[in-house]
Design the sequence.
């Protein structure tokens, strides 16, 4: 605190943003210092204290304090390396989709593209409705939430994933949770760490979950790994590319890595020495390269999309200007990009939905923005309207489709005709609707075979 902020605590935004008053030479020197280090993995790995919380988890299980939801051979896991070279298991089948409120509400083609890819690959999954929002948006956006409530929601949802297969005649643990939202992903990893470190927090949350009937033999259930959908795409990229129907080699793609995916609990993020020399998070980049597109570097790759949670509430114009000036404009002018690819709900929403504001003030830059699974689905022949649902996006995507030989006008016309069929009750289903329900009125066990 100081006289300039009238004794108020610093929040990091609003009127506290002050000009550093650096000379042009000093500003260039400061920028050069950051750029020389930000591309290097060592920026994250040069830490005095490194801890794998899974070591604590296994000890607590051994001591009878908790139960662990394991990834078994039935989940057909693939192994990856994380920031420090640790192993992480990624289940590839028998998945329980932990949906994203922001994706379903703002970018519905995001989850449908992922499910469409899994349908094509024959992946076993459950897309049930018995789940809640992670509530992390509230926590990061307003500060109203608290760790105890976040932990209770986290373990309640993951417990449901654990028991969800029983109604189909499976053992507990048959389905393993696959988290769609980057914010949920980062939040759950952070909360898992808090739970493993604090006996007091575990006991308080245990009392809550006991009232909900969400304990396993009287114990909290902790997941062996917390897995993001982009990690599933990463390990399945050879199989996905084998389904590719469209040549995307002429596409110049820029990648926006999400803060909550790899900056939050960075030791759990996937790195691969064969992708960008192992210096940046591997998800999304690995998939787009595997599909044959050109991944083009740009100087502001490390920057946040601008969403910032509290910024979007209290400093919305900061978010909008940051998204345009620091991300979209740079990708267009510096990288000559055809598309920007991301892997998180808030990032895709911010970078896509705010482009109109730039045009309104004379910053006429336009760039298609979509999730990695949406781009992959298009490359594999998915309908750009019915499945990928690009018409929900604010940024123009037609030029990208033309570049890869997709007749968007024909697809749009067919989609409009399909909507007339939907009005008559003749809509198609992405999967057997019984995969949305695991109990309650109307449930019927899926037929065998």
Sequence:
């Amino acid at each position: 605190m100081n006289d300039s902020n009238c004794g108020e605590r610093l929040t990091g935004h609003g009127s506290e943003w002050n000009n550093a008053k650096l000379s042009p030479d000093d500003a260039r020197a400061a920028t050069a210092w950051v750029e020389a280090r930000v591309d290097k993995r060592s920026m994250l790995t040069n830490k005095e204290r490194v801890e794998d919380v899974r070591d604590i988890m296994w000890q607590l299980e051994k001591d009878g304090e908790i139960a662990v939801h394991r990834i078994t051979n039935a989940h057909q896991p693939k192994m990856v390396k994380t920031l420090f070279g640790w192993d992480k298991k990624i289940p590839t089948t028998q998945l329980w989709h932990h949906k994203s409120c922001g994706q379903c509400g703002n970018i519905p083609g995001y989850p449908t593209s992922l499910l469409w890819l899994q349908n094509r690959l024959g992946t076993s999954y459950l897309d049930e409705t018995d789940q809640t929002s992670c509530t992390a948006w509230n926590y990061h956006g307003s500060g109203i939430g608290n760790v105890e409530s976040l932990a209770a929601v986290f373990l309640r949802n993951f417990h449901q994933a654990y028991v969800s297969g029983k109604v189909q005649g499976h053992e507990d643990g048959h389905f393993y949770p696959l988290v769609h939202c980057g914010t949920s992903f980062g939040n759950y990893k952070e909360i898992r760490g808090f739970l493993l470190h604090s006996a007091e927090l575990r006991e308080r949350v245990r009392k809550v979950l006991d009232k909900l009937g969400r304990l396993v033999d009287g114990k909290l259930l902790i997941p062996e790994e917390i897995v993001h959908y982009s990690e599933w795409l990463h390990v399945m990229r050879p199989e996905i590319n084998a389904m590719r129907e469209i040549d995307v080699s002429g596409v110049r793609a820029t990648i926006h890595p999400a803060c909550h995916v790899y900056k939050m609990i960075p030791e759990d993020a996937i790195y691969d020495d064969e992708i960008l020399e192992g210096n940046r998070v591997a998800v999304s980049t690995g998939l787009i390269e595997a599909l044959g597109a050109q991944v083009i570097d740009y100087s502001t790759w490390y920057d946040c999309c601008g969403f910032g949670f509290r910024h979007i509430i209290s400093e919305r114009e900061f978010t909008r200007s940051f998204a345009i000036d620091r991300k979209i404009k740079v990708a267009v002018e510096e990288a000559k990009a055809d598309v920007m690819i991301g892997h998180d709900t808030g990032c895709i929403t911010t970078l896509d939905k705010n482009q109109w504001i730039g045009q309104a003030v004379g910053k006429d830059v336009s760039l298609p923005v979509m999730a990695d699974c949406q781009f992959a689905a298009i490359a594999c022949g998915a309908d750009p309207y019915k499945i990928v649902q690009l018409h929900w996006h604010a940024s123009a995507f037609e030029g990208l489709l033309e570049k890869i030989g997709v007749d968007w006008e024909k697809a749009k016309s067919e989609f409009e005709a399909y909507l007339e069929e939907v009005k008559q009750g003749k809509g198609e289903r992405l999967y057997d609707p019984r995969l949305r329900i695991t109990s309650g009125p109307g449930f019927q066990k899926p037929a065998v075979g």
Observations:
- Residues 53-229 form a domain with the Glutathione S-transferase Yfyf (Class Pi); Chain A, domain 2 fold (CATH 1.20.1050.140).
- The first strand starts at residue 66 and ends at 69.
- The chain has two domains: 53-229, 244-422.
